[in-house]
Amino acid sequence: MGFVSEQLKKHEKLWQQMCDHPFLRETAAGIIPDDRFSNWLRQDYVFVREAIPFLALLIPKAPLAHRKSISETLVGFHQELELFEKMAAEHGVDLTDVVPTPTNRGYINFLLTTAAIEPYEAGFTVLYTGEKAYLDSWMAVKSAQKSTSKWQAFIDHWTSDGFRQWVDWLGAELDLLAEQASPALRERMAERFLDGLRYEIQFWNMAYQGESWESVHTQI
Ligand code: MP5
């Protein structure tokens, strides 16, 4: 069994939990409160923006055959920011001076440190996990929704054929990298896969419940 199928099988329950998240279910049903969806929109805008340096850190480590794809993805993330900006403007969501929440800061730092100090294979695993998580999460919304959402452009973005092809390519390449990796490196890739999945779930939790640094200031 390839690395990707192995990990998805091993963490099947957790992966399903992510796809069944109340944030996604409320979005599909069209009952998600605006402030709750805005939490996600504002935080994910910062996340995508900070994922650009993550990709930049991967490029010098990437095999030649990956350089073009990773570079194009980097440009793609810049274009994706325009989608966030357009949707925010249309729905009155303020994107200025967004402070990343503890969860978002943690996930961003996890991406950056993995790309900077770990082998390329570990960084690539984290990239795959995040993209696959978004494909499956938004597919869960798309397949459950009965009417068009006010947030449809986001749903369509991460469920498009083009996005699916990109995630499939990442998965196939990840399988190849894992095949060539030593047992120790493969183990590390498996750990990063689980870390990434946990951050993805935590990101939905954060958007759903709201989260801020103010709670850190509260004395126990
Ligand atoms: C993605 C994202 C997908 N936007 N946000 C999180 C928390 N995880 C994954 O990345 P992209 O660049 O939007 O395809």
In words, what does this structure look like?
This protein is mainly α. The protein has a single domain (3-7, 22-209), classed as Heme oxygenase-like (Heme Oxygenase, Chain A, Up-down Bundle), CATH 1.20.910. 79% of the residues lie in helices and 0% in strands. It contains eleven helices and no strands. The longest helix has 27 residues, at 64-90. It is globular and about 50 Å long. The structure holds (4-amino-2-methylpyrimidin-5-yl)methyl dihydrogen phosphate. (4-amino-2-methylpyrimidin-5-yl)methyl dihydrogen phosphate is lined by residues 44, 47-48, 51, 77, 80, 130-131, 133-134, 200, 203.
Q: What is the fold's blueprint, element by element?
A:
Blueprint: H1 3-10, H2 12-19, H3 22-29, H4 34-58, H5 64-90, H6 102-117, H7 120-144, H8 152-157, H9 161-180, H10 183-209, H11 214-217
Helix pairs in contact: 2-10, 3-7, 4-5, 4-6, 4-10, 6-7, 6-10, 7-9, 7-10
The protein binds (4-amino-2-methylpyrimidin-5-yl)methyl dihydrogen phosphate.
